[in-house]
Amino acid sequence: MDRKPITPALKLSTGLVLIFIMLVMAANPAAGQGRARGHLFIIGGGTRPEPMMKRFVQMASRAGSGRIVVLPMASATPDETGRSLVEEFKQLGAREVVYYNFTRKEAENYSNARLLAESGGIFFSGGVQTRITEAILDTPIHNMIRELYQKGAVIGGTSAGAAALSELMITGDEVRKPEEGHEFETIESGNVIVARGLGLIRSAIIDQHFATRKRHNRLISIIAGHPEIVGLGIDEATAIIVNPDETFEVVGYRNVIVYDSGRAQVEVRGDRALSIRGLIMHVLLEGERYDLKKRRPL
């Protein structure tokens, strides 16, 4: 049986992994303090049903000052997106909403991290997820977001903002250079490009617009090489709310698909095509729940 990592660059020796963990914990003391008290609100993109978004506002109102901070760095038009989301949250009843379009230089300024202090909710817009990590990964802003999550804030995002929340992040790119309209047509090892995300959820990788854009191939390809995590494909107008105990609830209008290769037999052919036997798949609808630690629906 051959379990090859999807991206060779992610294959670290045990010693390097330990050093990496120590460095992360040194940069972020909250990382070693056990279970976070906050929630993750991960939206698959597309339209955002009002009842679903009102729930985010209500959850944010119960933590810290109740203020919501919008971070629109993923967007190609971040200021326009930021203003639009601020208005949306205000119409949904949020007491205080602001947005900050941090550059990398601004995110590295410790004083700017205080702009997020005591917030009840952080919300990442859609766009391109690597723009988020390029701007704030391993900066004081990133550390403040993790601290807020530890203390009980709700951290949310839609589309690219959803993908960025996991430790292992789908970038949206592949090694093959297909013609437009022929992206991710294969299930194969080493093709889907992943990177390090914000690390707020470590037991799963997030894919968005899932059934709508037929993204099964790329998520299956990743999960085949990473049996230690599950793949969560969240469709449009749908979200999961991840609780402190690592269970999640589905909210919204469509479905969430879970792929689990933890007990699967995976083989990689010479041309990198994948054989996967025993892959587990769940299709969940609104109101259904799943345990990420036990890897089973509730």
Major sheet characteristics? 9 strands, mixed
Q: Say what the CATH topology is.
A: Rossmann fold
Physical arrangement of strands within the biggest beta sheet: 3-2-4-5-1-10-11-16-17
Number of domains: 1
- Kindly provide the name of the CATH class: Alpha Beta
**Any idea what the CATH architecture is?**
3-Layer(aba) Sandwich
What this model shows, in words?
It is a single chain. By secondary structure, the protein is an alpha/beta fold. The protein has a single domain (36-297), classed as Rossmann fold (3-Layer(aba) Sandwich). The chain is 28% helix and 26% strand. It contains nine helices and 17 strands. It has helices at residues 14-27, 50-61, 78-91, 104-107, 110-113, 129-136, 140-151, 160-163, 216-225, and strands at 39-43, 68-71, 97-99, 121-124, 154-158, 168-174, 192-196, 204-208, 230-234, 238-242, 247-252, 256-260, 265-268, 274-277, 280-284, 289-291, 296-297. The strands form four sheets. A nine-stranded mixed sheet has the order 3-2-4-5-1-10-11-16-17. Strands 8-9-12-15 form a four-stranded mixed sheet. A two-stranded antiparallel ribbon has the order 6-7. It is globular. It starts with 13 loop residues before the first helix and ends with a strand. Mean pLDDT is 87; it is low at 1-33.
